[in-house]
Amino acid sequence: MKQKLGHTSITLLFIGGLAAGAIAIAVSLLLRLFFGAPFIPELASQTLFSLTPGEIESQAVETFGSIAKYSAFIGAIIVNLILYGVIGVFLGRLRNKLHWNGYIRNALQSLLLSYIILLAVTILLLTLTEGQTNLISIPFLVIYLIPPHVAFGFTLSFFFYERIVIARPSSTVITKEKVSDHKTEIDYKKRLLLRAGIASAVALPILYFGLDNILSPKQAVQQQSPSLLLSQLQKSKSKPLGFEDPRLAPLLESEITPTDLFYRIDKNAIVPVVNAQAWKLTLKGLVDKPLEINYKELKDMPSIEQFATLECVSNKIGGDLISTAIWKGVRLKDVLGKAQVKPSAKYIVFRCSDGYDVGIPLDIGLLDGTILAYDMNGAALTSEHGYPVRAIVPGIYGMMNAKWLTEIELVDNVYEGYWQRKGWTNKAKYNTHSFIVIPDNASIRKRFRNLEPSNMTLNGRVPVAGVAFAGDRGISKVEVSTDGGTNWKDARIKDPLSQYTWVLWTAELDLIDKGNYKVMARTTDKTGKVQTPELQNPFPNGATGYHIVDI
Questions:
Q1: Which of 364, 392, 422 is where one domain is finished?
Q2: Of 32, 341, 407, whose CA–CA distance to 209 is shortest?
């Protein structure tokens, strides 16, 4: 004879829902890792990013950096768990009210109701999240949400039903489901907590290693690619005039930012992983010959290498969201030439595998320096930096340099992309910046290896050094001041690696009098425009103002 459980407290029902939910999330995470299935916490964090106004997002990035996105992702997992706990309470109350009996029946009813609830939540998230509805089809979603909720339903039913063996006088052993109130409440709680512990012991290792894998993916050894620029740079051992001080050596050594130190900002908590063998780039819109190009075909086209600096529009003064690399790829204008752009086209729209989109003016896309890059610093792009193909567009902020490209469309109107729809500038021309790297502890020092954390002077003389950047306008002069800008001293500038990169600069200051000094730097670009002292937050047009450090 099968009987249902008696009345169960809300707390126990919630605990059961949490533990069964942990199993469901673990199964969902495995499907995400091995099959690319939708992962509800990931979609939830994407929705949060999508709905957050640009100004608030800027403050979060400035304050917390990449931790802001990771925190939202982990928070979404916690909320997902709590939702399963609430579902557990709801199902328990419903089971008692409707007198559901039997382990299998309860499991099927639990999985069906939880499945419907989470399917509705997921569809809502997809609807609210820009770009995701085009990437995940509803049939795909319907199929991949089944296994986690099968696991949830049967695990939850397992918590509240048990099979025990009782003996009859005839010694015949009969298996029955027995009501939990035949035992003491204490024993019942112990059994439930034990079962929750078993579920946790199964789920937690999967969650730990699964989350570690997607948040910190183990990079495959990147295939090396012959780089003439890198080879020439490595052969050059002479130190530029004015940079002989050994304390400046780390600055020179990381003039090209090591790939593992190169900044990363995008809309994803989890790095997108794209299969290059299945990848195709689609060109469409206002072109005479729409086409598709695969990875091999793109790499077989004539390529170029160039040095270029990228800076995020969210970068604050002295911030670390700026880096320089050697990029190798195909000129965008050569690819567009194959498609034959129509005269009415005005903007180039980049669309990406993660749902990101952005537009750049056609005239910028046709410049020699605008490339579709597949190599970085003498190796294939890493997943963090856009593998297999990304755009490099000198002169405009990093948000316009789209990663994980899958589609290029030519349109006849000004196009506003993902960040622009949140209020960020669509012109995105780099502001003129000069940042002090040596001495002090400004965030930008994260982009340089082996910097000494010292403000020590030698006989009253202290080297001050840093980087200056103005996009494709170049740098003509850098100056430093120790008296609030009353007097300025010219710094020595190292020749830039290219017209698209930052320049290194240094000045030796005579600080004979003891005391604290506020050192500031300013730069002039090659158009004659002097860096403005006006402090401006990054949102919406990028930060401005002098970088000031204490010595």
A1: 422
A2: 32
The answer to whether 469 and 502 are in contact (CB under 8 A) is yes
- Residue 320: which CATH number? 3.90.420.10
Expressed as residue numbers, the domain containing 476 is: 433-550
Neighbours of 550 (CB within 10 A): 11
- pTM score, two decimals? 0.85
Q: pLDDT at position 196, please?
A: 81
Q: What's the token pair of residue 245?
A: 């001080």
Burial of 172 (0-12, 13-18, 19+ CB in 10 A): exposed
pLDDT digits (tens, 9 = 90+) for 486-511: 999 999 999 999 999 999 999 988 77
In a domain, 107, yes or no: yes
Mean pLDDT of the region 32-50: 87
Could you give the C-alpha distances from 135 to 33, 36, 40, 354, 418, in angstroms and in order? 17, 11, 14, 8, 15
Is 509 a member of any domain? yes
Residues 6+ apart with CB under 8 A from 114: 24, 84, 87, 91, 149, 152, 153, 156
The owner of tokens 């980087």 is 467
Contacts of 299 (CB under 8 A, 6+ apart): 374
Q: Please state, in angstroms and rounded to a whole number, the distance separating the CA atoms of residues 133 and 404.
A: 18
Q: In this structure, are residues 273 and 336 in contact, taking their beta carbons and an 8 Å threshold? A: no
Among 398, 422, 446, identify where a domain stops: 422
Nearest-10 Cα torsion for 519, 524, 525, 527: 170
What is the Cα–Cα distance from 238 to 217, expressed in whole angstroms? 38
Separation CA 471–CA 432 (nearest Å): 8
* Number of domains into which the chain is organized: 3
Give every CB contact of residue 522 below 8 A, 6+ residues apart in sequence.
434, 478, 479, 481, 488, 530, 531, 533, 546
Instruction: Quote the CA–CA distance of 224 and 375 in Å, as a whole number.
Output: 9
pLDDT per position as a tens digit, 425-469: 999 999 999 999 998 888 999 999 988 765 555 555 788 999 999
How many separate helices (H) and strands (E) can be counted in the chain?
Answer: 13, 20
Structure-model confidence comparison of residues 288 and 131, the more confident one: 288
State the pLDDT at residue 132.
58
